[in-house]
Every structure is written in structure tokens, then in C-alpha cells.
Design brief:
By secondary structure, this protein is of the alpha/beta class. It is built from 12 helices and 17 strands.
Length: 370
């Protein structure tokens, strides 16, 4: 069996490790030119199911490195108003426990042992089912690859999903997001609420404006394991209605986005816009908020989906864990010895049940319905 995996984020490498351990031929391909080609995600929480998938399918050394470089936390989730007058801890539901990591560090750990089967700069252009089974993938540079199964791990805007399920019910919300991170220095520590230094803080303001804050404090420096050094930082994400950010939102530069994010917090506790204005320009991103509904069932074939490619959801601290759970679930089905299409059918049923339950939870959390 040969499996082609589109997307070298987190779920794709997890799946690749699981399959290679059982002797499956894998090609992991990614449109970016290199691991560090662009900023893509900061501090993330991986819930219990996702953590279990990492522990089961990664090489033991890689999982140990992920734990060693994870985030030092002292509390869970708290919420506050814009004046930071009162902080309320939010009880977390069962299954929330897991691991909190820097996304790029985890990605580097996962990809190090996959160099021989990973192709960067390989942008997906389309696929064609082959007579007698299997699939041919076309790349933007004109190359092709054949496999028995194509797995879309290429995120909420998945081109593979658009071809497989052109009527998939995905919606881009009116809200827009500006992500960033501010290095933790003596000055910025004083600006950061304790609830964000030790855990995750959500701040809800008027007119649909919200701020998420969470510090990434590495337990051990990734440099100890041969990776680029880790710099402690505070991740922030500012959400506002699209009208507040203007029509040229996705054409703005990092400095303009930083100013826009700080201005959205005008009238809030002064430490919050001050913290945002000290953000690192190399790590400021504009983003949309995706939601989706469970599609009508489709016939299993040589193409399937994992993570946000299968069930796009708002950013609410669950999507990374769900994507890794998908990857582990698919790996288990594919190496079970069942016929390929039977394995895919079983996976897709379980994935859709679990994924859209998580998507509904993420939507409630994003709306502040804790």
C-alpha cells in the first residue's frame, strides 16, 4: 500500500509516522518551501485524545521531546472583562487534559525523522482516480504521483476537499482574527495578566471584540535536542467583526495589522493594547474564522480527509487535538488488515461523528458559551 498525504502540519506527520512504523510506503507533501517558510500557529493545547494519538504513533524519542519542550502551565482557562477587574476560572470538561506545546517546535520534532519521505514545495493541483483503484495526484509544477490512497491534511481551505466534496457546507464567519506573539521580557511579563502567564485567558468586550492570551514558557529549550532555540512568548489573538477591520484586511502588512489589533482594544485595560503593540512583526497573521456542518454521506474511495480539511471549526483550543485524533484513528484502520475501502469507510464514520461533535463544541466556545 502507498499512501499520499497532503499537508505537513501536525496531523499529516502523525499519520505518516504511524503508517511507516507498519511498513506502509508514504509520501508526505507540503506546498511550503520549508518547515519554517512562514509563521503558522503558536501555543496550542492538544486534548487527551490528540495526546494519546501522539503517544501511540510517534517514535518514543519524538514523543519524549514533545513533552520535554512543552509549556509550563499552572492553571487552566480563565475569563475576564476588558478592565481586568475580575478573573473567573472555567471548569474544563472531562477529556480536556493533554499537552500544551509550541506548534512549530512540535512540527519540527515530528518532521525530523520524516525527511526521507517528505517533499516540500509540492503544491497540490488536482487528483484523478485510476482505473482499477488508486489515485494520481497532480502538482503545480507538473509532476505526478500515484498511490492507493490520498489523505487531505491540508487545512480548512483544503483543495482536495473542494474536489472531493464540492458542495461541502463550509462558512466563513463575519468575524476576523489577528494573531500575534510578544516575546516575554521583564517589561512584557509585567503587562501580562497572571492568568495568561500560567494558563489561557479569554477577554470579552463590547461589539463582538475579544482577546485570547496565553504564554508559551518552554519546560526545556528545544536547542537541547538539536532544534532552533525556544523563546518564551505570549500568544495573542484579537477577534472583531469584519467591518471593524476594514475591506483591505488581508492586504495589510504586519505593522498595520498590529496597529489594528491594538486599536480594537481601545478603552480596555491599557496593558492589553500595550502588550499587542510589542508583538514580533514576523509573527503577525490575518485569518478568517471557519465553521462547517456535517455533510451528507459520500461513498468511500481512494481519497479521504483528516482534521480541518474534514471538519473546519472556529479557533477554540480543540482543533489540533481533534486533527491528531483523526490521524491516529486513520492509521489504526489502515494497518488493521481490513480491505482499504472498508478501512476508509469505518474511519470516515468515526471521524465524522467525533469531528463534528468537536466542531459544535468549538463553535459554542468561540461564541463564549462556556
Amino acid at each position: 500500500m502507498r499512501v499520499l498525504i497532503s499537508g505537513a502540519g501536525l496531523a499529516g506527520p502523525c499519520l505518516a509516522h504511524g503508517l511507516r512504523r507498519h511498513g506502509v510506503d508514504v509520501l508526505l507533501f507540503e506546498r511550503d518551501a520549508a518547515v519554517d517558510a512562514r509563521a503558522q500557529g503558536y501555543r496550542i493545547h492538544i486534548g487527551g485524545d490528540g495526546d494519546a494519538a501522539l503517544r501511540e504513533w510517534l517514535p518514543a524519542e519524538a514523543y519524549e521531546q514533545a513533552v520535554a519542550t512543552s509549556c509550563r502551565t499552572g492553571r487552566g482557562v480563565a475569563v475576564a472583562g476588558p478592565d481586568l477587574g475580575t478573573f473567573t476560572d472555567i471548569p474544563l470538561p472531562p477529556g480536556t487534559a493533554g499537552i500544551t506545546v509550541d506548534r512549530l517546535t512540535l512540527r519540527r520534532i515530528m518532521l525530523r525523522d520524516l525527511a526521507g519521505c517528505t517533499r516540500f514545495g509540492a503544491e497540490f493541483a488536482g487528483y484523478t482516480p485510476l482505473d482499477g483503484g488508486g489515485v494520481r495526484v497532480r502538482f503545480a509544477d507538473g509532476r505526478t504521483e500515484d498511490g492507493d490512497l490520498l489523505v487531505a491534511a491540508d487545512g480548512a481551505g483544503s483543495g482536495i476537499r473542494r474536489q472531493l466534496l464540492p458542495d461541502f457546507p463550509v462558512t466563513i464567519d463575519d468575524a476576523r482574527l489577528i494573531y500575534g506573539r510578544t516575546p516575554l521580557t521583564a517589561e512584557t511579563r509585567d503587562l501580562t495578566p497572571a492568568a495568561a502567564l500560567e494558563g489561557f485567558l479569554g477577554v470579552a468586550g463590547p461589539e463582538g471584540r475579544r482577546l485570547a492570551l496565553a504564554a508559551q514558557r518552554f519546560r526545556r529549550d528545544p536547542a537541547e535536542f538539536g532544534f532552533p532555540p525556544g523563546e518564551d512568548y505570549v500568544m495573542w489573538a484579537v477577534t472583531a467583526p469584519s467591518a471593524a477591520f476594514g475591506p483591505d484586511f488581508f492586504r495589510l502588512g504586519a505593522g498595520e495589522l498590529t496597529d489594528l489589533a491594538a486599536e480594537a482594544l481601545g478603552g480596555w485595560h491599557p496593558s492589553l493594547p500595550a502588550l499587542v503593540r510589542r508583538g514580533d512583526p514576523a509573527h503577525v497573521l490575518a485569518a478568517s474564522v471557519y465553521t462547517s456542518e456535517r455533510p451528507e454521506p459520500w461513498s468511500p474511495g481512494p481519497v479521504t480527509l483528516v482534521g480541518d480539511a474534514a471538519h473546519p471549526m472556529p479557533p477554540a483550543g480543540v482543533s489540533a487535538g481533534v486533527a491528531l485524533h483523526d490521524a491516529g484513528l486513520l492509521a489504526g484502520r489502515l494497518v488493521s488488515g481490513a480491505p482499504l475501502l472498508d478501512a476508509v469507510a469505518e474511519y470516515e464514520k468515526e471521524m465524522l461523528d467525533h469531528g463534528f461533535a468537536a466542531a459544535a463544541l468549538a463553535a459554542r466556545n468561540h461564541r463564549g458559551e462556556h
